[in-house]
From TrEMBL:
GO BP annotations listed: cell redox homeostasis
UniProt-listed NCBIfam families: thioredoxin
GO cellular component: cytosol
Residue ranges of every copy of the Thioredoxin domain listed in the record: 1-106
InterPro entries documented for this protein: Thioredoxin, Thioredoxin-like_sf, Thioredoxin_CS, Thioredoxin_domain
Gene that produces this protein: trxA
Protein name (Swiss-Prot/TrEMBL): Thioredoxin
CDD domains linked to this entry: TRX_family (cd02947)
Lineage of origin: Bacteria, Bacillati, Actinomycetota, Actinomycetes, Jiangellales
Active site positions: C30, C33
Entry keywords, A to Z: Disulfide bond, Electron transport, Redox-active center, Transport
GO molecular function: protein-disulfide reductase activity
Site, Contributes to redox potential value: residue positions: P31, P32
Top-level division of the source organism's lineage: Bacteria
Length: 107
């Protein structure tokens, strides 16, 4: 299961991370969020040590979502050195997500 962060732990777990972090902004009522959850759990294991994957419930932690202007769910936001470098809105297949991550990290 992908580890969760909150408004209170976001800075420590994401912004201060020594490796890139892909954050899944999700909500309980969001069907596409539930569709991609198993794939993100799988990727968390596959990418361990290179990219951390965390999830944050946007309804329960509104401060972080507002800070990064999350308007639609799911939003996957990639943070590198504490800065958001890419936001991906909506569900997508694993291969496409991996390609988008690879492209963002090679810039």
């Amino acid at each position: 299961m992908t580890p969760a962060v909150t408004d209170e732990t976001f800075e420590r777990e994401v912004l201060q991370s020594g490796i890139p972090v892909l954050v899944d902004f999700w909500a309980q009522w969001c069907p596409p969020c539930h569709m991609i959850a198993p794939m993100l759990d799988q990727l968390a294991g596959e990418l361990e040590g290179t990219v951390a994957i965390r999830k944050i419930n946007n309804d329960e932690n509104p401060v972080t979502g507002a800070r990064y202007r999350v308007m639609s769910l799911p939003t996957l936001m990639l943070f590198v050195d504490g800065e958001p470098v890419q936001a991906l809105v909506g569900a997508r297949p694993k291969a496409r997500l991996l390609k988008e991550l690879e492209d963002a990290l090679s810039r």
